[in-house]
Give the backbone structure.
Amino acid sequence: MKLKKATAVLLTVAVTVGLAACGSSSDGNKDSAKKDDNKLTIWAWDEAFNILAANEAKKIYAEKNPDVDVEVVTMAQDDIVAKLNTSLSSGAYDGLPDIVLIEDYRIQGYLNAYQEDFADLSEIASPEDFAEYKTGVNQIDGKMYGIPFDSGVAAMFYRTDMIEEAGYTQDDMENLTWDKYIEIGKAVKEKTGKDMLTLDPSELGQIRMMLQSAGAWYTDEDGKVNLADNQALKDAVTTYKKLVDAGITKTVSDWDQFVGAFNNGDVASVPAGSWLSPSIMKAEDQSGKWAVTAFPRMAENADSVNASSIGGAGWYVLKKVGHEDEAKEFLKETFASNTDLMNTLAEEINLISTLKSAAECDYYSKGMDFYGGQEVFKDFAEWTAEVPAVNYGENTYIIEDLMTEVMQQITSGADIDKVLSDYQKQAEAAISK
């Protein structure tokens, strides 16, 4: 699942995990693992999304390059992380792919530790071709190392019928602040008996989205831990507590409970990434009862805007595996530029591309009956362009392991400043190990 927090895996040179699938190179293969000249290998996770996208790209590439065999391999994201760590730290490239999908929250760790193992893609794409917030994470020293893929642009999905029953209109859901959202949520709870949203105490997607709406993260611009003096984080934590204290949240503990809550009509809205749309649309009996609006902003924070993001990844070339030029050419003809591919993926997997030219695709201007005829792809594209760029640093998941404890203490009434100050030290210690 995309919303649930993945297991944190440290990116260190001293990784000693023994994975037979990675194998080990002989000394002669440490600089480059020669492979079949006519074969490219791609690693990604998620059969219904990333893998399907890679296979569609494979079809398009084959039209002009029928002699190149492209193998798309499905692998769990945690397995990809572990295998990359093991092989790159030891300089053993046998068994690695030519192209690999890497999550935005993780890529800085790889580029800082193993920059020489990743191909510079500046010749096949330009940062200006993509949403600004996506390209900041894949650049070092002015060089672009990744091709941005999916937008995790945040949105507020909501039930129009429940909002109207509570005495509000769709106009009231535009340009939302969290305070206004809570006001509407209280009315929904009073009139319908339904909660406004779900919260999972072990999952901090809501905090991430609130943070990025203010152009902030758990770390500062230099990647250093920034909890104690982070005003945006304090505002986000305060807003989260307001939601809990308002009595308008439904507690869930896993993905199935999360999806079940809105598919069963137990909540009136879902703040989440655009990629959640297919899951919402599974409840066919609710067609015409949903709409989508921009993500709420924190009114008390002058930097917060009605746009954010959650999740997302990019495509990277491992240049010492043996097919650097061919892998670059594959990405150049597909994910780096091909709007026909983006249009197909919008229709097949509800992809919101971060390629700016994709906004002109035919499917983006199509009204969707499920959302009352709303051109949601067009809206997602507009909001994607407004997402603040932040430096996710190398340690998002390590810090979030501690932040779950922070949230439990604060929602139970502990002093925000004291808790964040205490955990600032703990986070610094955890990262320095």
Q: What stands out?
A: The two ends are 29 Å apart (CA to CA).
